Structure prediction request, 416 residues.
Amino acid sequence: MAVAYGISAMGDQLAIMTLTVRLHDQGVAGAWIAGLFIAGLLPIVLFGPLAGAIVDRFETVRLVAAVTIAQGLISALLIFASSPAIILMLVALLGCGLAIAAPALLTLVPALTRHTPSKGYARLETFRLAGTVVGPALAGVLLTVIGAGGVLLVDALSFLLLGGTLLCLPLRQRPTPHAPQATWIHEVMAGARVLARDRVLGLAIPVLAATVLFTSVFVIARVFFIQDILHAGAAGYGLAVAAHAAGMLLGAAFIGSRVRAAHQTATLGGAGIIMGGALLLVSVAPVLPVALIGFLLTGIANAVQGLAIRNLIHARITERFRGRAFASSSAVFNGSTLIGMSLGGVLVTAIGSSRSLTTAGAGTLIISLLAWRSLGIRSRIANGPVRALESSEVVGTESPFVNDGDNLLHSPDQIV
Prediction:
């Protein structure tokens, strides 16, 4: 499944590059191209809690397979779309599918891995990142060889491959029956409530969201910093993007999977400190080699943070509520990304790219330093009894929390 997921992620990058080129060649305003990225992210933010309730209510394998096959058909429609409005609408529909498929795939990991779930999450993320790295480079070649329509067809086929692979798995993950008295709105909001009430995640989610907001500023500032401050040109910018991507691959493949369950909270705060320090280093030492080292470190920290929060959610939230927890946290983080990128555009215009990087680094570093000790204290306290939510506050009578994350992260061998 991880290989098919990586190929699908590569297809996504092929599509976004192809559609960006198509809109650019049509001579549309820059707002349409920005809207392309927003259209892909906004449904995850707005639709996330509802998507989580869907994930926890239906059989997971068939649900993801149906969604990804539908995404393949939508991608096929993009082959014939030329109107910017139609393109953005179809991309938004793909984003709605991703809001369901992404958390659903994460809930499947414990049942699919021979090792601990933390290694399963790391493997899935490694293949996804490999696809996102290969995709943009491959897009340029394929656009020349088979044209935009052919590239979009490859993307459609990648969705169908993932859906077909899931249907071939000898696994069906049945949902836990929901309480008959539960209303749909209670089901939808349960993910946000269990995250907010957990002693560790109630702090970890806002802390990571705040650091995501600040670090998203650097995504916008980076291109101006490389071009205008370092005068490294397009080649330098390509190296900077590649350094960050390589760091994410290294972090997912070799670091994140090796962190023990008891150290996940410390890792979350420590990775934020490394990321903030790296951005500050880049801003105060404006030379290309330092920038490449700094962006490599931000990539490593980025991947490690992402895996740490997934492992914490897995360890502290029971299976019944896990799809909603993953979807709600994803909505929060993607919302922070959108706000941070918008803020980045404003800051670069107002104070320049170098100071924008300084702001991003300082904000990330300060938040991580302040939260690191508090996260450690809450993690130690949380080893004791955790108060369950009342049935009227979430749904049903089962506690949504798991007390012993170490034991949960070491489940027996499963299918794959």
